[in-house]
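re: that chain from earlier
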Amino acid sequence: MSLPVYRWRLAPDGYATYRQLRALGLRPGGQDVAAQLERPRRRRGPLVAYLYRIDQAKPVRPMTPGRWAALAKANAARRICPECRRDAGYVIPPALGMCVTCAYPDERPAA
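^ sequence. v structure.
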């Protein structure tokens, strides 16, 4: 059996995308995709958004203290420069792989 396909903005009530569920404080909760939206484009294939049934969605699980601690630790690790081992004060750009000071040592401002 194939999924029902609706045109953009013409889905019936009772369906929501993943982001719409999150805005309502819900999650799909293991249910399969119930339908899909298609938004036509001129030169490429249509944009597709998957829809879930709101009545089968479950509430979002609350963050536990352990999860908050793990998230804080992961975010702090993204700020540590692997070259100089200092907290850069911002998330290290993946393209550089190190803080801007280590990546461009010749461009330091004169004190």
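The longest helix spans residues 65-77.
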